[in-house]
Q: What sequence folds into this?
């Protein structure tokens, strides 16, 4: 019994070796970790939002009793008929049901919007947020990189002194303050634009399509939220880029490049710029994850039809499935962008690559 | 005990009791300084104590007394242990130290730190402006009620002839105008900052304490503790925090705003915790920390005596940013109507002003702008103040005294 034949032992050994290799694989570990995080987020939010006081049917009953003067039983009957949702079903059953559907890629149907699939709702609201915050992020990042680099290169100069002050002021003021100020000062007091022309996502009388009218209208409505976003984030990019550039300028290879008599522009772009941008690229990748969520407050102020606003209405109306779907979408974006940041850093920084090989 | 705290603690702020406490506390550095001919600092110390006692009761008075006495002692202290750099003559040198000597030596060291810190505070212009801004809000919140009475009832009689609403712009009688009930906006600004500032500071402190302790534990212990804490922080960072705060705020009902601060701390510790953990990891490999480990000096000693002093600048600056972010989130919650906070409060002013059409009413501009500007200025002061804090707590930057 003790003497186990040698050939039998090799199979588990080989399996163990393969298993070790698989578990050691960095990419796989990251992906599994991401999936686990998403599962945890889904479970956590599932039970959490059902702890919120009131449920969709309860809210509808209150509304019906209030508006149409129905008795409680009448309201209950009509509210229960409206929604395909049973608040008394056991929670665990609901959870298992939801997870099974989720595994098949089905986010369920919105409780409040008469059975519209949640995925369709997200598809409808997400592009607005992506367009508005995404282009805001790009503009803000580009501006920040160029200004920050210029400030570091001519540090102590007028540009540096003025912009450092301006950047900390911009960074110090919260975004909803900027949003309200824009609306009140530029819109109401100075009458630069008509308030009705900028609130919402698009004017109702404009035909969607690839034409000048539509695109102008699109930008006209997105301009204020975008401006707010740029205003509050550009300061951070400027300051990070500045400190990153300053530390790069102190590196030996810059001195060597100068000693070799390379043209100033070449040093600035290929020697300083590329290296100083490394830490910013990672931050950019991480920021992309937060683009998806938009901002509940800003989108509420400008009545912009983005994902943040969808989430806020869902929270207020206790639309469980929609809330779940939006939370999951945002979490997935964050997880994905973190993985992206990891991978990008490896690609961009040769030192990391070499370190992995050896 | 609570009654006593109300009478002489923070409850004594801006009352006669507070003033008396301040004067009593001020006598210590004054007498000590005058007897030892450090007159200028004795008088400054006295004023600081009176101010501290008047503004924050016993706690402020005692704190100021400690600091200003330390400064006075630092001027007259002769280091008997160090015959080479101090003014001690060789007969005075004595390597036996009594408890009293030890106390005096520590006080002198504290006094020197206070002097260096106040020098660093004034040296950075931006930081000093931020400090003055915070001081202004502090004075306004504490002493404002002495001069301005809270205006909480509707004043129909203040309607101007022909006006559609009670909203009104600035006038001589009401410098910041009137709100939709004809109430004095200035009084709401003066009274409305207290809750918001206190909650934000509480939230900032709690978040920092949680983050530093967990980060230090994860960094120093490593292993399973580190893995569990890292997984937890990853998880919290993945869930969108502000919407989560919205959901949680609707589940939990608060009878005290401090719970809101605690809720904020629970959701926002991971960012700082990760940074602390990373720094502890790198500090752990330094020789002096390794030496402390091999001497078996104990985990708390290593955390607070060896590792913390090197990170204190970073932690304090981060705490200020956390306070800022807490205020943003609290105002955001109030603005969306998810947390019910009583008037007077800056956030409630914005929320009610917005829901009562103040944005579109040119007369209401000053009513809506006042809390907005107050919040913006407070946050700006916080951000600017970090410049000074960096200099105060960074030993490398703090030279030249």
A:
């Amino acid at each position: 019994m003790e003497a186990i034949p040698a050939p039998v032992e090799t199979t588990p050994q080989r399996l163990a070796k393969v298993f070790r290799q698989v578990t050691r694989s960095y990419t796989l570990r990251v992906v599994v970790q991401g999936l686990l995080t998403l599962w945890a987020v889904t479970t956590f939010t599932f039970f959490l939002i059902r702890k919120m006081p009131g449920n969709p049917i309860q809210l509808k009953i209150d509304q019906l009793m209030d508006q149409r003067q129905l008795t409680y039983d009448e309201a209950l009957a009509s509210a229960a008929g409206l929604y395909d949702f049973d608040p008394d079903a056991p929670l665990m059953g609901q959870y298992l049901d939801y997870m099974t559907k989720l595994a098949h890629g089905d986010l369920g149907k919105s409780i409040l919007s008469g059975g519209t699939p949640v995925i369709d709702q997200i598809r409808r609201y997400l592009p607005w947020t992506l367009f508005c915050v995404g282009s805001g992020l790009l503009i803000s990042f580009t501006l920040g990189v160029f200004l920050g680099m210029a400030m570091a290169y001519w540090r102590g100069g007028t540009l540096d002194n003025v912009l450092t002050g301006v950047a900390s002021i911009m960074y110090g003021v919260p975004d909803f303050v900027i949003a309200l100020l824009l609306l009140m000062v530029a819109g109401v007091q100075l009458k630069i634009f008509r308030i009705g022309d900028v609130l919402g996502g698009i004017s109702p009388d404009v035909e969607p399509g690839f034409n000048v009218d539509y695109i102008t209208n699109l930008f006209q409505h997105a301009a204020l939220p975008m401006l707010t976003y740029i205003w509050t984030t550009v300061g951070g990019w400027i300051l990070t880029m500045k400190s990153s550039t300053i530390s790069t300028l102190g590196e030996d290879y810059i001195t060597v490049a100068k000693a070799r008599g390379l043209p100033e522009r070449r040093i600035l772009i290929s020697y300083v710029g590329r290296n100083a941008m490394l830490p910013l690229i990672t931050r950019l990748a991480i920021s992309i994850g937060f683009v998806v969520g938009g901002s509940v407050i800003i989108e509420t102020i400008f009545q912009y039809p983005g994902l943040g606003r969808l989430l806020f209405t869902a929270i207020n109306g206790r639309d469980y499935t929609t809330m779940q779907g939006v939370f999951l979408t945002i979490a997935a974006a964050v997880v994905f962008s973190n993985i992206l940041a990891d991978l990008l850093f490896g690609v961009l920084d040769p030192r990391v690559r070499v370190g992995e090989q050896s | 005990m609570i009654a006593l705290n109300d009478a002489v603690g923070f409850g004594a702020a801006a009352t006669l009791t507070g003033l008396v406490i301040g004067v009593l506390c001020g006598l210590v550095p004054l007498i000590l300084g005058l007897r030892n001919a450090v007159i200028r600092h004795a008088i400054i110390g006295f004023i600081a104590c009176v101010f501290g006692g008047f503004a924050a009761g016993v706690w402020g008075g005692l704190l100021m007394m400690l600091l200003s006495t330390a400064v006075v002692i630092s001027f007259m202290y002769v280091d008997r242990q160090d015959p080479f750099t101090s003014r001690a003559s060789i007969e005075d040198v004595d390597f036996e130290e009594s408890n009293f000597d030890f106390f005096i030596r520590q006080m002198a060291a504290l006094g020197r730190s206070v002097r260096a810190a106040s020098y660093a505070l004034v040296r950075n212009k931006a930081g000093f402006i931020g400090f003055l801004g915070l001081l202004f809000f502090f004075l306004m919140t504490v002493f404002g009620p002495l001069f301005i009475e809270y205006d909480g009832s509707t004043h129909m009689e203040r309607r101007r002839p022909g006006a559609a609403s009670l909203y009104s712009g600035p006038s001589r009688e009401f410098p910041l105008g009137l709100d939709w009930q004809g109430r004095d906006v200035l009084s709401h600004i003066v009274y409305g900052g207290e809750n918001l500032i206190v909650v934000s500071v509480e939230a900032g402190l709690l978040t920092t304490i949680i983050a530093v302790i967990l980060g230090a534990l994860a960094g120093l212990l490593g292993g399973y503790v580190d893995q569990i804490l890292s997984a937890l922080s990853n998880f919290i960072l993945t869930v969108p925090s502000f919407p989560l705060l919205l959901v949680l705020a609707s589940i939990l009902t608060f009878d005290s705003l401090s719970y809101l601060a605690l809720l904020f701390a629970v959701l926002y510790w991971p960012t700082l915790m990760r940074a602390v953990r990373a720094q502890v990891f790198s500090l752990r490999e330094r020789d002096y920390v390794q030496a402390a480990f091999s001497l078996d000096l104990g985990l708390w000693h290593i955390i607070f005596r060896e590792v913390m002093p090197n990170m204190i600048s970073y932690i304090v600056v981060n705490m200020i940013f956390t306070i800022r972010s807490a205020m943003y989130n609290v105002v955001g919650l109030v603005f969306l109507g998810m947390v019910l906070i009583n008037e007077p409060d800056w956030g409630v002013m914005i929320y009610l002003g917005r829901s009562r059409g103040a944005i579109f009413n040119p007369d209401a501009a000053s009513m809506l702008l006042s809390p907005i500007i107050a919040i913006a200025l407070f946050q700006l002061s916080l951000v600017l103040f970090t410049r000074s804090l960096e200099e105060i707590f960074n030993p490398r930057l703090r030279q030249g005294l």
About this structure: The first helix of chain B runs from residue 2 to 8. The mean pLDDT of chain B is 80. The radius of gyration of chain B is 25 Å.
